[in-house]
Design brief:
Length: 354
């Protein structure tokens, strides 16, 4: 759930491509991969490396294609690459692959341990929880520009690199295609993952960090705050789409985190993120996506903002909309975990508004 939004707000120089999505890509995401996306990767949190932050000479191919060309011929309009494309380009020196797997706390899974057991050859581990804002208690919020740059530099990523992000949704697709995985992580990969988390800590404690090789270009219009969402409930400038399940949206299912009210932001509509994917967890075609959104009463001619539980799966909606040409869809970073914990925010359910 962590790869799609991840590339949307800080990675402004090269494309972040993803290929196969996980039904539970729990934070992306947004899409640095945090907030704020799938088809091979998880669409959730590519918020730093977003496809909307791509240079014109770098992009990704459509999912399912068997392209054998290199990054120079990538299209800038398609946010997802196929398994075949990645396999053909995996050894290119300017292609960096990130495993941004993340799981809900109640799943009791450890993404770093699973990365060490099996991952795409050469992939680095991107810690969605670790590379996050340390000034808030909200989960995996986007870090500052400086912190993100320090962490990404520690991973060895430079502005010249093309980045492909995946999570546990992409790995099964890779294996099903008959491609090899690495069953043990190199000491260098583990050291880089550790160095990235340490760099974040140092920045927030005012300490010096190592050489910064990645320059960020934060795009605040892609990340909404609580106050912006409050204002939107009154002015309705944007259609608000919630990626959570219908039961959570309606307020008939308890939230997975304690102390969070059930329900949804007044005026928002529910489009659960799995509706963006087919049975193989691959992003739907443009025609299929258009039909899904229109069925839920979403006008593709008007502005949209997306949210979910913590700002991860909201990036999958943003990814689907990106495929339809809506490349400036903001994600509410704090999402329902922030909204539902406030005492003064209005909450709607299937039966009432409070």
């Amino acid at each position: 759930m962590a790869s799609a939004f991840l590339s949307r707000t800080f990675f402004a120089n090269r494309v972040v491509s993803s290929f196969a999505l996980n039904q539970k890509p729990q934070k992306l995401a947004s899409l640095l991969f945090k907030k704020p996306l799938h088809l091979w990767a998880s669409s959730s949190r590519m918020a730093y490396m977003s496809t909307s932050s791509i240079r014109s000479d770098m992009a990704s191919t459509a999912v399912g294609s068997t392209a054998t060309f290199l990054t120079q011929s990538m299209s800038t309009t398609e946010p997802v690459v196929s398994v075949d494309w990645l396999h053909a380009n995996l050894r290119e020196p300017d292609i960096k692959v990130l495993d941004a797997s993340w799981y809900m706390p109640d799943e009791q899974r450890n993404p770093l341990q699973e990365y060490q057991v099996a991952h795409i050859p050469g992939a680095l581990f991107f810690d969605v929880d670790g590379i996050s804002d340390r000034t808030t208690n909200l989960p995996h919020m986007l870090p500052s520009d400086e912190a993100f740059a320090a962490a990404v530099s520690a991973l060895g990523i430079e502005n010249k690199d093309g980045v492909v992000v995946y999570d546990d949704g992409g790995l099964p697709r890779w294996r099903a295609s008959g491609f090899d995985v690495e069953s043990s992580a190199s000491s260098d990969a583990i050291l880089k993952a550790s160095a990235a988390s340490e760099a974040i800590e140092k920045v927030y404690h005012g300490q010096a960090v190592g050489p910064v090789t990645f320059l960020t270009k934060y795009q605040p219009h892609l990340v909404w705050t609580l106050e912006q969402v409050k204002k939107n409930t009154e002015e309705q400038t944007h259609q608000h789409i919630d990626a959570r399940s219908k039961a959570r949206f309606d307020g008939v299912a308890a939230e997975p985190r304690k102390g969070i009210r059930s329900g949804h932001v007044p005026g928002s509509k529910c489009v659960p993120f799995p509706q963006m994917l087919d049975a193989s967890q691959t992003l739907l075609s443009a025609d299929q996506l258009t039909k899904k959104f229109e069925q839920e009463g979403i006008s593709l001619d008007n502005p949209v903002i997306t949210s979910c539980g913590t700002g991860v799966t909201a990036c999958i909606l943003a990814l689907g909309l990106h495929r339809l040409g809506k490349t400036n869809v903001p994600v509410y970073d704090g999402s329902w975990t922030e909204w539902g914990a406030q005492e003064d925010t209005p909450v709607s359910t299937s039966t009432s508004t409070s």
